[in-house]
Amino acid sequence: MMKQYCVAILCMLIFSCKKKYEAPVPDARWDLFSSSTATVLTHNTRNKLEGVYSITDGTDVFGPSAALKWSYTANGRDTTYHLSMFCERQVVYVICEGKRLDSTILLNGYWRNVVNTETGLARFTLSKNSGVGYLLDSSNPDTIPAIVITGTFGTGDVPPDRPISLQYSRPLYRATPLEIVAHRGGGRTSDLLPASENTVEIIKMASRLGATGIEIDVRFTSDSVPVLYHDATINERLIQKNGMVGPIENYSYAQLNGLVRLIKGERIPTLREALDAVVYNTSLRYVWLDTKFTGSMQKERDLQVEYMQKAAAMGRNLNITIGIPDEDVLKNFLKLSGYQNIPSVVELTPQDVTTTNAKIWAPRWTLGLQNEEVERMHAAGRKAFVWTLDVPENINKYFLQGKFDGILSNYPSSVAYYYYAKQ
Amino acid sequence: MLNNKTLLFYFLLFLTCSKSFGQEDEVTSQTGRSKKYSLILYLSGGAGYFPSNAGAPGYLKPKLARINPVTTARIMWKPDHRLKAGFETGYMTFYSYQLTDANGNKGKVSLDAIPLLLEFSVSVKKHFNLFAGPGFYILKTKLNYAGSAESNKVSTGWMAAAAYTAPLSKEISIGAEAKWLYAAETIRGSFGLQLQASWKFLKW
Amino acid sequence: MTPSLLKTPGICVCIIICLSAFSKSTAAQNLPIEQQKFIYFPHPMSSKWTTSIGLTATTLPYDITEELHYRVPAGDFHVIRKVGNKVNLDGRLSIQLLQNLATVGARWTTALNNRVSVGAGNEVGYWFGFVNFAGFKSRGSGWQNIPNVAIGYRFNKQVLLSFRADAIMNFNIKTFAGNERVTTDYRVFSGSSYTIALEQPFYGNRNLTLGFRALYTDFFWQTWPAFESFDRNLFFPQLIIGLIL
Questions:
Q1: Above 50 in pLDDT, residue C202?
Q2: What CATH number does the domain containing C75 carry?
Q3: CA distance linking residue B139 with residue A315, whole number of Å
């Protein structure tokens, strides 16, 4: 009998082990960086730091090259700037804040590989002989000295000790504009990002992840409040379990707002809250409202008008388009008065694009490059976006051979690297 | 989700860990073969205990009702060996709880289910049977908070049970069953104790 | 890795019930192994052929399926052929019509004593699939190599318990979405799986296999149309039911 129970216990141990994957953002406190004498970087310094850098130390984690770009999050009168390093190695990024301490520039933050759980601290210093004089100088000389960013990185919360070194090689590519559209407001919950998908929190992060625009999923509650939620049902993938199951449309907004918390603790946001964040907290310039409901689209349309007007009043060039993913939504869209003047993004045929007078045609990437069709869209004054490109080799191929104006991706940092590093 | 299958696995494992497979009344030969095939109907009613706090999150200050009714019916085909196969369904409440939201508003959530389960069973001692099998649960949320709402969803799941029945006649027995009912969407299962009646209603 | 099951009250309840049920042995009788039929049990075959038909049902993780949480059934045809005293060939077809896996391999088995036997083998598999979804066609194919070891325990009477561990190696995975090649970056050593299988008489001369397989892998062939990008092992629990003919 003992032998049998030994086998049982052995098997129990083997079958009991389920790894819970997490990638928490490391605690980035750094005394030197928090020093009272450290000051924020000027606009000029931030601009000079942007560029494509070659990586010497740390290539096994970050790859041979990275594109460095700043973004900001506004919160009333406070604005926080982040320097993102979009790395060539899939799908790795670094997010830092920057400060000046005397004649030194400090960059403090963390790195993450999104396809797995690798993450850790990253700290950089620019001092003498690394071009810091040029970076801190308010003038803009014609010749750019060698800029070398050196630092250390580690794993998890452990103080970083592995060397990383980046050397400036060229400015960011910006010749042909590209809309880098982050899926589900910035990324998927399953990629273990710091915030849940389709939340205000992830929307505020989207620019740091490389996005210039976002796609968000719109559904209606039983009392017709438009909210952000991707799946057809409330389920354990997205929410903390509370005994509520079934379609989100079966519950009122008050019930969802009062009782449901998403995986990272957020509430399900209304579309209004999401667009508020876009307009007042971010520099995003494009929003794709993915219509996940059937029924009247008037409320979605009203919010589109309201927030494009609010953005315009702030001097923002924000484009919000209503997504038309299938025939049912198309029928409802055509019931809107003046539908031909409503900015929309159509995933269906070019004929449907013409019928709706959509601003954007958005075929799935699996249909191929379709360069001739894209050029016809351009000739008609429309744009073409492709979805959902995640594999870096394919992203690069669409840059090198394609003519699309925008790319929707779960990994906007990869799209950002290939775009800004383009020569 | 791991628990879903692993508990079934353990059940099968322990089911095999014994040298003690006894013989039923009709098991006659060394190979354990019986004389006839039969169909047996089991009707059970009792209470289930939901042992976990998962599913009633702390931010809702839940007052959990862990003990709830469980009623099930199963039909098993007994071939000429000791392994039986069949199907089980019924109606049960996994758990319910009174809640208080961040603003002090009260409410109630109840999670009920209709199990639809494929089952296998083996007799381990005289009158003592083990049951286990995979299947689905049609989950139903009943919500009373800021109005009322009902909503359904199908979840994968499984069950495992041990039953002792005392024969009243050749066809009818009564007894008790302890069972574990698990729907993946509930995160945890419910432990049930039921009174049971079985009727061997067809033999051939 | 957390032994989470041990923290689960339901498990304790089940274990206590089962241990209680089996705490006292009763006299039981043996059936010679030569008269028993098995597919998984690692023991030298006595008959020339043994064939099993059944199905597997694999639960796909939310990381891949997102909205749905469901078991994917697949037809399972399994045949073993004795080619030597302790060696048999092993062939298996896992069929879902639009995507299928065929494996062939060889296995060496030996009995350590009257109760315990062990085996080791290697299987080579090829999977392929076609999906026509929403007007665009995807296709995929790939090779697998599955070295495995197994240990079996024969209980009194006719109950055979087998435990098998596999290493899962994937090669040459090619997936296409429409005409576009989806470049893949899968690890050759893609994970491992652990199977517990119970084989015993069911009705007439038919035996039944009830099994559970736990796969920990970064690529499970049935999920190729998802083109998932995660570089981490996911858990795929699989139920196995087979009728040994």
A1: yes
A2: 2.40.128
A3: 50
Partners of C235 on chain A (C-beta within 8 Å) are: 18-19
| A279 membership: H or E segment, kind and range | helix A271-281
Query: Which residues in chain B show pLDDT less than 70?
Result: 1-35
C232 touches chain A (CB under 8 A): yes
- Asked whether residue C192 is assigned to any structural domain, the reply reads yes
Instruction: Report all structural domains of chain B as residue ranges with CATH numbers, in order of start.
Output: 2-11+41-203 (2.40.160.20)
Tokens for A306, please give them. 């309201």
Range of the domain at C118: 51-244
Q: For residue C78, what are the CA distances in angstroms to A204, A370, B129?
A: 54, 45, 30
Query: Residue C183: its pLDDT value, please?
Result: 64
Q: Does any domain span residue C12? A: no
For chain A, positions 12-71, list CB contacts with chain B under 8 A.
Answer: 12, 15-16, 18
Using a 10 angstrom Cβ sphere, with 0-12 exposed, 13-18 middle and 19 or more buried, the burial of residue A103 is: exposed
Planar angle of CA A202, A206, A211, nearest 5 degrees: 155
Q: Is there a domain that residue C233 lies in?
A: yes
Contact B146 A236 (CB under 8 A): no
Q: What is the pLDDT of residues B163-194, one digit of tens each?
A: 999 999 989 999 999 999 998 887 778 999 99
For C37-94, how does the pLDDT look when each residue is reduced to its tens digit (9 = 90+)? 899 999 999 889 999 999 998 988 888 888 776 777 899 999 999 999 999 999 999 9
Q: Is A212 helix (H, G, I), strand (E, B) or coil?
A: coil
How many domains does chain C divide into?
1
Top-confidence residue, C204 or A277 = A277
d(CA A384, CA A418): 18
Unique residue bearing structure tokens 């032998």? A3
CB-based contact C126:C102 (threshold 8 Å): yes
* CATH number for domain A179-420, candidates 1.10.287.1080, 3.40.50.1220, 3.20.20.190, 1.20.1440.170: 3.20.20.190
Distance from CA of A412 to the nearest CA of B (A): 30
Chain C residues inside the 8 Å CB shell of A410:
229
Q: Which chains touch C (3 or more CB pairs under 8 A)?
A: A, B
Q: Are C167 and C194 in contact (CB under 8 A)?
A: no
For residue C29, being part of any structural domain is answered with no
Rounded Cα–Cα distance for residues B21 and B123 (Å) = 7
Q: Write out chain C residues lying below 8 Å of A115, CB-based.
A: 229-232
The helix (run of H) or strand (run of E) holding residue A311 is helix A298-313
Sequence-distant (≥ 6) Cβ neighbours of residue B182 within 8 angstroms: B3, B4, B7, B157, B158, B159, B188, B189, B190, C10
Q: List helix spans (H) across A17-95.
A: 43-49, 59-62
- Distance separating alpha carbons of residues A242 and A422, to the nearest angstrom: 48
What's the CA gap between B156 and B117, in Å, rounded? 10
- Contact list, B188 vs chain C (CB under 8 Å): 8-10
Structural element, H or E, at residue A256:
helix A253-259
Task: Report chain A residues whose CB lies below 8 A from the CB of C66.
Answer: 190, 230-231, 237
Measured on CA atoms in the order B175, B178, B182, B188, is the torsion positive or negative? positive
Q: How far is CA A200 from CA A183, A188, A205, A211, in A?
A: 14, 13, 9, 15
Q: Measure in Å the smallest separation between the Cα of B19 and chain C Cα atoms.
A: 6
**CB burial string C130-161: b at 16+ within 10 A, e below:** eeeeeebebbbbbebbbebebbbbbbbbbbbb
CA C86 to chain centre: 22
d(CA A310, CA C26): 81
Give me the torsion for CA of A126, A127, A131, A136, rounded to 10°. 90
Residue A409: name the closest of A215, A272, A275 by CA: A215
Query: Which residue from A280, A229, A281, A237 is spatially nearest to A257, judged by alpha carbons?
Result: A229
* Cβ <8 Å between B31 and C31: yes
